Amino acid sequence: MAEKQTAGRQNLGDFAPKFAELNDDVLFGEVWAREDKLSARDRSMITVASLFTQGVPQLEAHMKIAKKNGVTKDEMVELITHLAFYAGWPKAWSAFALAKEVYTD
């Protein structure tokens, strides 16, 4: 990821400063930055898949990040279709609603 992540500090910096630091500096600053191990694109696909299976609201933000990291609409559709059989049909419907919003262009 090229941009420095600040969402942790922006959203939780005053309330949970250590969690915010770990989010911004460790998760995004160190782990996501290890592009010699996995590309940001691949990390995005993995993260979207994981969040999809959990059915959590962070899926939308990471789907947008995935698009910025080069995951195409066709790849996202395939990812959701594939996971529907493993994680659940209703989750796929919800994920497709998000994907349609994210990949509107």
UniProtKB/TrEMBL annotation:
This is Carboxymuconolactone decarboxylase family protein. It comes from Lapidilactobacillus mulanensis. Residues 17-101 form the Carboxymuconolactone decarboxylase-like domain. SUPFAM superfamilies: AhpD-like. It comes from the Bacteria. The lineage of its organism: Bacteria, Bacillati, Bacillota, Bacilli, Lactobacillales.
